[in-house]
Specification:
This protein is mostly beta strands and 321 residues long. The strands form 3 sheets. Strands 6, 7, 8, 9, 10, 11, 12, 13, 14, 15, 16 and 17 form a 12-stranded antiparallel β-sheet that branches. A hairpin with a 2-residue loop joins β10 and β11. The chain is globular, with a radius of gyration of 21 Å.
Length: 321
């Protein structure tokens, strides 16, 4: 998903899509990737004209071009990158200064229970042996930039940097996710659930484990028949409920999470063995997939006017109980 948070940030995108020819290019490539010659033929334009249009779509992140030498000669293959476009038009409820964020490296989980197929890797190498869950406890797991498993969970401890006198009104989690199939399979649904402070906030069904093309940031040494990229998902919990990419997935509200009571809170990604679709989970970090980011967690808050000493005195120090 390509997320435009401010209209001004989407200017190049809007210009790129402000052409009937380029909209037709996107429509054709959504159906299937094509090489430049095929695409020019379908559009009845010259390769030179097509190159100009493709360059504009590349610059705004809608289309990616890769080289394929497996056939006759070296071909340039074009494909659409995002599965959807999300544009925020309304101003956010909270002013920008009333947010605090933290990036969580994929491997810096505090607890896990996973089942094969499973594994984890840094941007340079596999950690241990694939399909051996014991390596999820190896000291090197903190360096992991991608992890995958068929069922189970990984859980992160997230620091709460909101001021002690602030009232938390919104929590947002952004992460690149996909299913986990043996090898890859673009049609491999998986029910991925999200819990915060042991409260199940909702479930999203991932459509597949994507391996049709290499991820934009996936390292060159990575195996071509393994997880290549995911979908950028934005989970939001506020006073109205819980939303995935702006669509309500549950009635759990921010007050149900009791975030103000602790200086740390837990964030769990899970695939339950009782789910309808037990299709696993892959989490991509900044050196894998199509989005150069780790797991991003943002808290929105407003000043309550309450003195810091009035905060819950039972809250543990340094996140310890």
């Amino acid at each position: 998903m390509l997320h435009i948070e401010k209209l001004s940030d989407g200017l190049s995108l809007f210009k790129a899509l402000g052409s009937e020819v380029r909209l037709e290019i996107v429509r054709l490539l959504v159906e299937e990737p094509m090489n430049m010659n095929e695409l020019a033929g379908r559009l009845h334009i010259t390769n030179g004209a097509l190159t100009t249009h493709i360059r504009k779509l590349e610059e705004c992140g809608v289309v990616a071009v890769s080289s394929d030498s497996s056939g006759h000669g070296n071909q340039k293959i074009c494909q659409v990158v995002p599965d959807k476009l999300l544009v925020d038009i309304k101003r956010p409820q909270l002013p920008a200064e009333n947010t605090c964020s933290v990036d969580l490296k994929v491997g810096r989980y505090s607890n896990c229970r996973v089942y094969p197929t499973c594994g984890l890797a840094t941007g340079e190498r596999i950690i241990g042996v694939v399909d051996d869950f014991r390596y999820f406890s190896h000291p090197d797991h903190f360096d992991a930039d991608i992890l995958w498993f068929t069922q189970g969970f990984v859980e992160y401890q997230v620091p709460n940097f909101a001021p002690p006198y602030g009232r938390i009104t919104q929590l947002t989690v952004s992460a690149e996710l996909s299913s986990e199939a043996p090898g890859v399979n673009n049609q491999w649904p998986s029910d991925i659930s999200f819990s915060i402070n042991d409260v199940l906030v909702g479930t999203w069904t991932s459509p597949g484990d994507f391996g049709d093309v290499r991820g934009i940031f996936t390292p060159d040494w990575w195996f071509p028949n393994w997880n290549q990229y995911g979908l950028l998902k934005i989970l939001t919990v506020n006073r109205q409920g819980t939303f995935m990419d702006g669509l309500r997935i549950s009635d759990v509200c921010i007050g149900d999470l009791k975030l103000h009571e602790k200086q740390m809170f837990s964030l769990r990604f899970a695939v339950d063995y009782k789910a309808e679709h037990v299709g696993g989970l892959t989490i991509f970090g900044r050196t894998f997939g199509n989005y150069a980011q780790d797991i991003q967690v943002t808290l929105g808050y407003v000043s309550s006017g309450t003195a810091p000493q009035d905060r819950d005195a039972s809250a543990p120090e340094n996140g310890k109980e």
